Amino acid sequence: MECVVCTYRLKQEVGRRLALTARAILYLDPVVHEGPKLLGVVHANRNRTRLVLTFSPATAQGLHLGGTANCQNCCKQPPSQPYFWAVEVQAPNGSWVGAHAEVKRNTVTVTSSVSTSGVRSGYGGMPDCLLYNGAGGGDNHTR
């Protein structure tokens, strides 16, 4: 019974997102129908352990990290499992390691213990924590 309820909730969210997209594109209704759009990434210090990700203000109102429908860790930093990081950075050897993420307005500051050459979020077969705007997320949308 629990799986049926979860599946039902996820289908409602997909339908809600499709409806918002139709309102915005077909009816030119000024609703937020997209997730946060990345504008750019810069290194914020010399040793390249801090990155600042800037998102479009039009899609970043209410920007926050939030748990997915199957959330087990709900964006705790550091997470209880190594593969639950909300944000990962690429180390010089090419491996990906978890990093601390702090959200402020339309930016996310990512801090790691290694020099970084890349950043990713929501990666993996079943990510636990994702980046949402105020109009997104299965359980915290405003529309």
What do you see in this structure?
This protein is α+β, with helices and mostly antiparallel strands and 143 residues long. The protein has one helix at residues 2-25; strands at residues 38-43, 50-55, 64-67, 87-90, 96-104, 107-111, 118-121, 129-132. A six-stranded antiparallel sheet has the order 1-2-6-5-4-7, with no helix packed on it. A two-stranded antiparallel ribbon has the order 3-8. The chain starts with a helix and ends in an 11-residue tail after the last strand. Residues 1-8 have low confidence and may be disordered.
Class by SSE composition? alpha+beta
- What is the chain-wise order of helices and strands? HEEEEEEEE
- Low-confidence parts: 1-8
From the spread of the alpha carbons, the general shape counts as globular
Q: Which sequence of strands runs across the widest sheet?
A: 1-2-6-5-4-7
Q: How confident overall, as mean pLDDT?
A: 81
Compute the number of helices: 1
The main sheet comes to: 6 strands, antiparallel
Work out the helicity level: 10-25%
Strand content range: 25-35%
Distance from N terminus to C terminus (CA atoms, Å) equals 28 Å
Radius of gyration: 16 Å
Tell me the number of strands: 8
